[in-house]
Amino acid sequence: MNWLFTLSALIVSSIVGIDAFAVNQQSTRTPSCLPMAQEAVSSKMATLTDATDWRLRLLLNGVTTTQGRKIDGQLFVLNGNFIEEEGYEPPQGLFKSLTSNNESEDGSDEVLSLEISSSRWKLSEDPDDPKDGLWIWGLFKEPLYPFMLLQMETKELELSSGEGEEKDSIPPLKLYAQINHIRDSETGNVQLKNADVNIRLLEQVQLPGATVDLYENEKVGQISFQPL
Asked: N or C, where is the chain less crowded by C-beta within 10 Å?
C-alpha cells in the first residue's frame, strides 16, 4: 500500500509541475509579441484636377511698362486649379484662376492682382528631345512626362500713379514656363518645382521673297507652386 501511495504522489506532483511551467512560460511573453493597433494617417494628395487648389507665386523682374519703366521684384499670387481636358495624350488642359490676392501672406507688402485671360498646360518629355509616345511600344510602364509646359496670357494691368503723373500700366503678357513635374507612381501625388518665367520676343527676318518669324525667350521672373 505504501508504494501505491508514493506512486500517486509522484504522478500528482509531476502534473502540477508541468502546469506551473506552462503558466510561467506564458507570463514571460514580452509586449513586442503582442498585436499593436495602427493609426490611419490621412494625407491630402495633390493632383492636376479641380480636386486640388494650387497657389501660384509669380515674381516678375525686368518687365517694361507702357511708359518704359522697369518693374522689378513685383509679386503676384494666384489661387486656382489645373483642369485636365479629357481625350488627350499627353495630358493637357487649362489653369483656372479662382482668386487674386492683394496682400502678401504676412500682410506687410501689397501684391498686385493679375488677371489671366487664357492659359494652357501640357505634360511633356524634354521639348528639346521629344520622346512622346515611346511608352506605347512598351519601353515604359506608364507615360513618363518629367515636364509641364505652361503658357499664361494676362490682361493689361493699370498701375497706381500719383497726382499729376501720367498713367502707366503693365501691358498684356504672354508668359511661358518649363516646369519639372514629378508624379509618384504609387500614390499619384504631384509635385511642381520652381521654374523660370519667360516672355517670347518676336523678331521678323526679311528674306528674299519671304518673311520669317523668329522667337527668342527672355527671362522675366520665377514661378513657384504650392498645393493647398
From this structure: N
Residue 6 grid cell: 508514493
- Return the H-helix or E-strand segment holding 183: strand 174-183
Q: Cα separation of 117 and 157, whole Å?
A: 12
Band (204; pLDDT cuts 50, 70, 90): confident
Instruction: Return the pLDDT at 116.
Output: 92
User: Residue 222: which pLDDT band, with cuts at 50, 70 and 90?
Assistant: very high
Band of pLDDT at residue 225, cut at 50, 70 and 90: very high
Contact 156, 169 (CB under 8 A): yes
Distances (CA, A) of 199 to 16, 121, 174: 90, 16, 6
Return d(Cα 156, Cα 4) in angstroms, integer.
Answer: 113
> What pTM was computed for the model?
0.69
Q: CA 113 to CA 104: how far, in whole Å?
A: 11
User: Which residues, listed in sequence order, are joined to residue 214 by a DSSP beta bridge?
Assistant: 203
Judged on CB neighbours under 10 Å (0-12, 13-18, 19+), 59 is: middle
Q: How many CA atoms lie within 13 A of 198 on its CB side?
A: 16
d(CA 50, CA 129): 30
C-alpha span between 66 and 75 (Å, rounded): 19
Q: What is the per-residue pLDDT for 23?
A: 36
Cβ neighbors of 222 (< 8 A, separation 6 or more) are: 58, 59, 194, 195, 196, 197
